[in-house]
Amino acid sequence: MDRATYNNGRAAYNTGTAGRLRLTLHAKRGDKPLVSEPRREGSPNSVRAVKGMNDVLPSEVGRWHRIEAAFRRAMEWLGYREVRTPYVEPTPLFVRAIGETTDVVEKEMYSFSHHDEPLTLRPEGTAGIARAYVEHKIYNEEPITRWYYLGPMFRAERPQRGRYRQFSQLGAECFGDAGPGCDAEMIDSLVDFLRDIGIASPEVFINSIGSGDTRARYKQALVAKFVPVKDKLSAESQRRLVTNPLRILDSKNPVDRELVQDAPKVLDFLSDEDRAHWDALRRHLDALGTPYQIDTRLVRGLDYYGRTLFEIKGAYDKLGAGSTLIGGGRYDSMITELGGPQVPAIGFAAGIERLLIASEIQVPTSVVDVLVAPIGEEAFNAALVLGRDIRRVGIRCEVDTRKASIKALLRRANTLGARIALIVGERELRDGVVEMKDLAEHMQERVARADIVTRVATHVAMPFVAHKRAP
Ligand code: AMP
Q1: Is residue 9 scored above 70 in pLDDT?
Q2: Dihedral through CA 332, CA 334, CA 335, CA 341, nearest 10?
């Protein structure tokens, strides 16, 4: 039985030490907290968070922990280990690894110069991780490296729901395995992960943009297709026709999209090796029973990709246009680009805020298991000692040190989602007992001070059974 249940229902209990006062309290069924979208309140002089950079308040952090824990578990089951790289990297790293003509590098980086060194707040995780992999020569230590990460990224984008200027990504990179089995396993495990965090129907989209030769031939074909209709293309796509024609395929402009309809398909240009990789990827996904759709327009924003590309979308109703939950792909040439040997790689990243918006999961709202409520001056020290003794056996316990009324103390116990309230008053002190209330079971008993810690421990471990009572 999940402890969340204690606090999710209606709690009604007798509050008075001798049944004097009867109070019915309703534990709020925790409304699903979202990411704190920007609030614009306060006096004109108040200092506010930077636009697009949001606070995550304690009431929301529980859902973050749940998603982060599910991700860590999913990755560790697959043999991935966590890596942590700096938030700030030399600007040329991103220019080289992500590509000069990408939106991220062209428009979205927070770059600055410190003592003449050009630096950038990381806009994504892969470049820094690939740098660390090369810098520490990890390729000399192991044939295959599986690393995962979680943390904040920074992009100067126009903020909207699911798109922020500081956002958090979880992601992973696998270095050293060029095979399509690695790609299929990654995609399949992500579908399981999304289900585990309460995203019911994730949709997988895959494509292959082949390796270097394939892409060169395909780019030529795209240029040949679009040059005659150049004037009809959006200004952005006209520019891309010169700098990065592949990106015309994922233009959001309606006229561009119309023209892209009958553009040549990259899959028709795959070399024999690229085709073998692509066919095997689909066979592996079929063997794993992972449903997927082929999207030949899927090119993704970053320059470093080759062969397998994938996106996982979902929760269209909640995320609208920003429904891409996870994006990933193979980048077999990045490690050489960064000065390392030829090591193939594949990785993915997901925005945690988007996962939170899409996910149906709820988490326990309980903050502590026990509230110790001292009544009267004399009981105060005894309550402090009792609280410490309870925490020493590993039970979460708050001592309410406000010297408040019994009514206020019990209201606090309810707000905290405490299962048990321990009342220590002068009479209890004199009698060497503690008044114990199980707020979920609506039970109340006097327990000898010498036995109370064990008694509390048994109660906290005991599932709340009220729901099992006959209707
Ligand atoms: P990308 O690194 O652009 O491939 O993005 C990978 C994933 O990160 C996307 O599918 C989103 O879930 C998330 N993401 C990217 N940019 C943002 C942003 N500005 N705000 C929130 N999430 C983002």
Answers
A1: no
A2: 60
- The residue among 327, 310, 217, 205 whose CA lies nearest residue 265 is 217
Give the mutation target among 167, 197, 311, 353 for probing the ligand 1 site: most ligand atoms within 8 A of CB.
Answer: 167
d(C-alpha 12, C-alpha 407), whole Å = 13
Please give the pLDDT value at position 364.
84
Q: What is the pLDDT of residues 94-150, one digit of tens each?
A: 999 988 888 899 899 999 999 999 999 999 999 999 999 999 999 999 999 999 999
Same domain, 128 and 171: yes
Residue 170, pLDDT > 70, answer yes
Instruction: Classify residue 266 by its DSSP letter.
Output: G
Q: Which residues pair with 312 in a beta bridge?
A: 204, 326
- 53 Cβ inside 6 Å of ligand 1: no
The reply to whether 301 falls in a domain is yes
Q: What is the pTM of this model?
A: 0.84
CB atoms inside a 10 Å sphere around CB 90: 13
Distance (Å) from CA 361 to ligand 1 centroid: 21
163 lines ligand 1 (CB under 6 A): yes
For residues 97 and 139, state if they share a domain: yes
Q: How far apart (Å, rounded) are the C-alpha atoms in residues 197 and 72? A: 12
| Cα–Cα distance for residue pair 119/111, rounded to 1 Å | 6
CATH number at residue 275: 3.30.930.10
Whether residue 354 has its Cβ less than 6 Å from ligand 1: yes
- Does any ligand 1 atom lie closer than 6 A to the CB of residue 322? no
Query: DSSP characters for 268-301?
Result: GG--HHHHHHHHHHHHHHHHHT---EE-TT---S
In a domain, 161, yes or no: yes
Which residue type does 124 have? Answer: E
The secondary structure of residue 330, as a DSSP letter, is: E
Q: Per residue in 361-415, pLDDT tens?
A: 999 889 999 999 999 888 999 999 999 999 999 999 999 988 888 899 999 999 9
Domain that holds residue 80: 58-211+271-358
